[in-house]
Design brief:
The complex is a heterodimer of chains A (about 250) and B (about 400). Chain A is of the alpha+beta class and about 250 residues long. Chain A has a seven-stranded antiparallel beta sheet. Helices cover about 40% and strands about 25% of the residues of chain A. The chains are: A alpha+beta (about 250), B alpha/beta (about 400).
Chain lengths: ~250, ~400
């Protein structure tokens, strides 16, 4: 259900005819190894839940704050239009399954949990400035209390647009939180960075670079082990950044 | 299909693996007609490059026939004969638009790993570790080529595979190394390492107007090729004191530019070379840089050091004081192959260079394991091995 809109934006921005790509693009985007990350849902939760477990005595969930940025070689207008059409977000956010717009301001978000579990919430756009800013927050009864914003700032001549993303979470304690933490594994700041990298690839090249599904001299089992190892690599690499990205 | 797989340090094997398939819309699949073993493949073979995984398909110098196309590739058709750059580049990003193709922002799916080590990631590469994307290489019967609408260059029928194969890497790499020297009329260029890249650096230095080229190595066959094919003056570092000899040959001035075509596994017989060997053996340093140190010491004041040789990690005892004191310019990096493909193809078409001169060995793909061993051990004057799946 996402393809037509994605395609529209991609076609509209780079002028290359990709009319036949829908299937492949979406296939690539939905592959577990490539697919965009749970920016909004889960990203911050892993860390937060770890903190919660550490302070099990009081069971107080700590707020997580993440900021990151990326440069994309498209105009603020093109990037704003793509992001503001929330149906596009699951194309590059790893654990986000769907976003359905309920009206101009409100939307319903579904993220993957462990196994068949889902994490869901309603969100509203509470601040918006065309081609510059989108800010959203979860509404009452959210599984995960969260808020986020993305700013689009035109870079120096020939340097595209700077995207600055902030995320805040106040996730639940207890089993739901623990299950989310297990799912996410890697550090939240790195997950968001990878999501933004996928967004950059979609916007600049029309596809997400991947080796998932390529041939090798390994069996399927060995291949899976490598994919898992790659994810834990990311976790290790992120440890330093996480310390600065997160201030409970 | 058959493919050459990295199975561990000093262990490559030809295995039967599944055929590649189109994954992304801008992919193509090639049937490989000719592929080669690169000197930099020996760094993988020797276990110097991190993030290799057992079962990785090797090979980044290859060419072949287009057999399948993703839906977005409009500039190629089935049956086209193409050479593919070893650097994978999207053609859309900030860097590609500035001809810095080997710095492509969008082609390495594992950028995070390289970022951690280097601050930022370079482009994806074929068959050159997971840090560089983990893409399956072309020492195989078939290969998947990402961004096939940007990389591959079509080859006219009248040119043979062996004449054009090296457009994939070593010819552009040697050429960019010489171009990076900003050669002026009357210049003397010294080239460390007379492997295939060194041979192309020598020829390219002349093509770009050098008056003298001095080539340094210790393997007689390579020095002979540099002299006979490249018309270089040659020095054997086993027999000569390189600093003294180069100073003497340049009237005490030093070469105007020095090219390090050796990289991180430099050999040598001086104290610092032995020290490097001990330190890397103990994992106290990762790269041996004897050739580079020598180049920095002997290069003339205000000269240029050009480094096409591959480095992966940390250098020890790097004479930065000498580089500063003499005001040297350093130019280096993975080759921006896409930038050079068409201009260099034209040089081949015009008969100004026939790159096939470096080939010393022709093997079937099945013989890859013995090929790596022969190349590694400099057996029977091996300089460049090409392999053809059709000989299997």
């Amino acid at each position: 259900m996402n393809e037509p809109l994605t395609q529209q934006v991609i076609d509209g921005t780079d002028g290359v005819n990709r009319g036949e790509n829908d299937g492949l693009l979406v296939k690539a985007a939905k592959h577990p190894f490539v697919t965009g990350g749970a920016i909004l849902a889960g990203a911050g939760l892993a860390y937060a839940v770890v903190k919660t477990i550490q302070t099990a005595a009081d069971k107080i969930a700590r707020e997580v704050h993440i900021e990151t940025s990326i440069t994309i070689d498209k105009s603020p207008e093109e990037l704003f239009a793509f992001w503001r059409d929330f149906k596009n977000l699951p194309l590059f956010m790893k654990n986000l399954e769907s976003v359905v717009e309920l009206d101009e301001r409100k939307s319903h978000w579904v993220a993957r949990g462990v196994g068949a579990a889902r994490v869901e919430w309603d969100a509203e756009v509470y601040n918006e400035k065309a081609n510059e800013l989108i800010a959203w927050r979860s509404l009452e009864n959210a599984d995960v209390v969260n808020a986020g914003s993305v700013r689009f700032q035109k870079g120096p001549t020939g340097h595209g647009t700077y995207l600055r993303v902030t995320m805040n979470y106040n996730p639940p304690a207890g089993t739901l939180g623990a299950s989310i933490a297990k799912l996410l594994g890697a550090g939240p700041a790195q997950l968001i960075k990878e999501d933004l990298r996928r967004l950059k690839q979609i916007m600049e090249t029309g596809e997400i670079a991947t080796i998932a599904g390529q041939t090798s001299g390994r069996s399927h089992t060995e291949e899976d082990e490598i994919n898992l190892a790659a994810e834990s690599d990311v976790e290790e690499f992120d440890q330093d950044k996480e310390a600065t990205a997160t201030h409970p | 299909m058959k493919a050459v797989c990295w199975e561990g340090k000093k262990n490559v094997q030809v295995l039967s693996v599944p055929d590649p398939s189109i994954i992304n819309p801008r992919d193509a699949i090639l049937k490989i007609t000719t592929t080669a073993i690169c000197g930099s493949d020996l760094h993988l073979y020797d276990g110097y490059i991190p993030t290799m995984k057992k079962g990785d398909i090797l090979g980044h110098e290859f060419m072949g026939e287009v057999v399948e196309l993703g839906s977005s590739v409009k500039n190629l058709k089935k049956g086209d004969r193409v050479v593919v750059p070893f650097t994978i580049a999207c053609g859309n990003c900030f860097f590609c638009k500035r001809d810095l193709w080997s710095a492509c922002d969008n082609s390495n799916p594992n950028s995070a790993t390289a970022e951690t080590l280097y601050g930022f990631s370079g482009s994806g590469l074929f068959g050159y570790s997971h840090m560089m994307g983990g893409y399956a290489g072309g020492q195989a019967e078939y290969v998947r080529v990402p961004f096939a609408d940007v990389g591959p260059v079509q080859i006219p029928d009248e040119l043979s595979d062996e004449q054009v194969l090296f457009l994939s890497d070593i010819f552009p790499t040697g050429y960019m190394a010489a171009e990076n020297c900003n050669i002026q009329p009357g210049d003397t260029v010294a080239v460390w390492g007379c492997g295939p890249v060194g041979q192309f650096a020598i020829k390219s230095a002349y093509l770009l107007g050098a008056e003298r080229v001095i080539a340094i190595d210790h393997i007689p066959g390579r020095l002979r090729m540099a002299a006979e094919q490249g018309k270089a003056e040659t020095l054997n570092f086993d027999d000569e004191h390189i600093y003294q000899k180069l100073s003497e040959m340049t009237g005490g001035l030093g070469p105007d530019a020095c090219i390090d075509c050796v990289g991180l596994e430099a050999h040598g017989t001086t104290i610092d070379a032995l020290y490097d060997r001990a330190k890397t053996a103990l994992y106290l340093a990762t790269d041996r840089s004897h050739a580079l140190r020598q180049a920095i010491r002997v290069c003339r004041k205000g000269g240029t050091i050009s480094v096409p040789g591959v480095y992966g990690g940390f250098l020890d005892k790097f004479p930065f004081g000498a580089a500063f004191a003499k005001g040297l310019t350093f130019k280096m990096g993975q080759t921006n192959v896409h930038k050079y493909l068409r201009p260099l193809l034209r040089l081949i078409q015009d008969g100004r260079i026939d790159p096939s001169f470096v080939i010393t060995h022709r093997l079937s793909l099945n013989d890859a394991a013995s090929g790596y061993s022969t190349f590694k051990n400099d057996k029977d004057d091996c300089i460049k091995i090409v392999m053809k799946p059709e000989l299997n």
